[in-house]
Amino acid sequence: MTAAALIVAAGRGQRAGAGLPKQFRPFAGQPMLRWSVAAFRASPAIGRIVVVADPADGDLVHAALDGLPGIETIAGGATRTGSVRRGMEALAAGAPPAHVLIHDAARPGVTPEVIRNVLEALAHVDAAAPALAVADALKRAGDDGTVLDDVPRDDLWRVQTPQGFSFPPLLAAYRALDESAAYADDLAVARAAGLAARLVPGAARLGKITFPEDHAMMEQLVGVGATCVGAGFDAHRFGPGDHVTLCGVRIPHDHGLIGHSDADAGWHALTDALLGAIGAGDIGDHFPPSDPQWRGADSGRFLRHAAALVAQAGGRIVHADVTLICERPRIGPHRAAMRERTAEVLGLPLARASVKATTTERMGFTGREEGLAAQATATVLMPG
Ligand code: MG
Question: At residue 4, does pLDDT exceed 80?
Answer without folding.
Answer: yes
